[in-house]
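Per reviewer request, we include the raw input and output of the structure prediction for the construct analysed in the revised manuscript.
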Amino acid sequence: MLRLAALSTMGITLIPAASYAQTAETPRADGDAIIVYGRALPQIGEALSGSQGVVGYRDFENRPLSRVGEMVENVPGVIATQHSGTGKANQYFLRGFNLDHGTDFAGFVDGVPVNMRTHGHGQGYLDLNFLIPELVERIDYRKGPYFADVGDFSAAGTVSFTTARTLPRPIAELTVGSYGYYRALAAGSAEMGGNDLLVAIDGTLSNGPWDLDEDLEKVNGLVKLSHGSRDEGWSLGLSFYHADWNATDQVPQRAIDSGLIDRFGVIDPTLGGRTTRIGLTFNGAAGATDWTAYVLFYDFRLTSNFTYFLEDPIDGDQFQQRDRRGVFGGRIRHRIDTELGTMPVTFTLGADARYDLIGKVGLYHSVAGTRTSTVREDRVDEYSGALFGQAELTLTPRLRMMLGLRGDLYGYDVRSDLSANDGDGSDGLLAPKAALAWRATDHLELYANYGESFHSNDVRGAAISVDPATGDPADKVGVLVRARGGEVGGRVELGNFTASLVGYWLKLGSELVFVGDGGATEPNDASRRYGAEATLFWRPLPWLAFDASGGLTHARFRGVASGENRIPNAVSEVLAAGANIDLPGGLSGSIRLRHFGAAPLIEDDSARSKPTTLVNMGAYYRFGAARIGLDILNLFGAKDADITYYYASRLTGEPTEGVEDYHIHPVEPRQVRLSLRYSF
């Protein structure tokens, strides 16, 4: 049925969209519109830290993407990889964190939090596959715990995607690529009774380079009705996302070396996943007040096997994770511009609330994709509320100060299939924030920041008394884990050149670490990080732009012996760079390099991953209302790993205690994608 829906989408792209009215020209339009790069927008006098910024549509319009989650790589210093099927949330790396699928990196789309707490696969699960990249209008990012309007999962950073309310022209696009890749998109907007209606549908089919076809079938849809402007108006959006796929998990290096499988082979061919997400979002703004309300239905199933026959030599170690929930929430924010004496002050006050009604979150044994027994199954109510406020004071014409405070309160009620693990409780946390911004010259601003934030733990761990797998007593974990961080930096803006440099430190009360042989995140020891980041954007010619970013991080566990304090998968160096051209004759394109360095895989640093470097390029030509495109992913055919783990697993015939080994998920080989877009 899903395949038919995806193929139907491809049919839609061939139907002229004459019924859509063309709206006024904007910087998003093809043709002769002015090119506006978000990275070139002035931040001096606006930003409160050297590591926050804006990315506009034209910054990434011509950026080749192998998967949707790579949209976060528009944030300097962020890397998105994958260790399983395309339908699963990406792995994220930032500031020396292996963020697994989200943990300490908060994501928002149109003001709605995307991270899932007490999730069936991993805490903070951040799945961005429901995004349609062509509809993303703006990306705002902020690093560190320095901002009062965000709380859970925001210690390392926050990214906010804003989707379009209208499109300059309706578009239809068809993409065909290597390894059975097909994608079709149809989108457009029209005026209806003084309101604007945007409709988009996006379908993807892909097998990938794997020996076992991934058989990805994915459909995204968005319908948005809006009135007025973002500053004085409202919008109501309905989004839909569904995906099915065969999983291509990491495989042991010894199986490749022995010839049992090749780099794109599979040990267990019965793995896979399915996700459905339906969301209703309302955004409004009137005067100095804005608000967001949302309702979300979410259903997730994932079948995995990381250790093969280590725990169960007969039936194998395959397991299935489930998550089915409704999410309800909202936020309101109010701005007050006033003066203290003669000093201008802007107060921002706000509140947010969220309620996760989790009907089923479970872990099960399975064989060949069929559930055989239950390890643990729970129903969970998790709810939270927060109040926040900050004051931005203009101390002098060149010196600004921000003081902020956020208070969060969490509550939960866990009802487990094992009554000993039932429980309820609550936790709260106050988090102060502070910033100084000094405009040293008209073109240089310096910043200093301090802040506290947190990530929540899976509340099943707060209620647990008995390990459901062994029956042994189990230790409880706290619900909220505090993070403290600081940063100093500067920003230069000289015409078409901007650059920033920051140094930072960050301490966490407990690290969330992905455990390869368990397939989940687990709380670990406290940690500390310090490092530096640099970014630049340069537009030497009207048709040419360069950007680059790099970061170095030193990450260690705290309170642990020096030989056992490395944080697994804490990447110490990242680098990204690219060039964009947009010539008057209709030719445009980009080339991008993305590199992340080696990392320890276990605490004693005796096993390390290898660096990964990829180059992607895209070339596009507009003629009339049409545009043809050519994307080449992994241009130089690198044979690196997307991600590497080190743990024990057991193949058939191996010792019962298993074999400690590297487990890799390779980067996909060079592939070509051709696209044809038509604007009506």
